[in-house]
Structure formats: structure tokens, C-alpha cells
Design goal:
Number of helices: 1
Largest sheet: 5 strands, antiparallel
Oligomer: single chain
Number of strands: 5
Helix content: under 10%
Structural class: mainly beta
Strand content: 35-45%
């Protein structure tokens, strides 16, 4: 499965997604401004969003891209 990502600088939100959107995915927000996207059938995380990314990051933006990553089955 390929990992897709994008960063919305104006909203300061970093998005990661494994594959194309699916109607079986539900979003769960954690207490630390992270939103997990979970496949309701397999119960596996298929993506996540980090809110206030630049504010939370210990690195200074811009972050060098592309990032090569792949989600692997558990």
C-alpha cells in the first residue's frame, strides 16, 4: 500500500493516507490533535492527520520532501 501525504500550510495540518479514500473509514480524534482514520472492517489505521503540525514540530519548516514510506500489513 502506498502512503500519500500533503501539508496545508494555512491550516497547519499534515495529512497521511494509505491508499484511496474508502466509505468504511471512520475518523477518531485523539486528545493530542491527531486524527486517526480506521478501516471499520479490518480495524487497522489507514491514515492519520496531525493538527497544528508546525507548532508541534521540533524541526523548523520547511521539511524536506518527498518522504518515502509504505504502510505494511500487520
Amino acid at each position: 500500500m502506498k502512503l500519500y501525504y500533503s501539508y496545508d500550510k494555512e491550516a497547519d495540518v499534515l495529512y497521511f493516507s494509505g491508499g484511496k479514500p474508502s466509505p468504511r473509514v471512520r475518523s477518531v480524534e485523539t486528545e493530542d490533535d491527531v486524527v486517526l482514520r480506521i478501516d471499520s472492517k479490518t480495524k487497522k489505521v489507514v491514515g492519520f492527520t496531525i493538527i497544528n503540525f508546525a507548532k508541534r514540530s521540533k524541526r523548523h519548516l520547511p521539511i524536506e520532501l518527498p518522504i518515502k514510506a509504505e504502510l505494511l500489513p500487520a
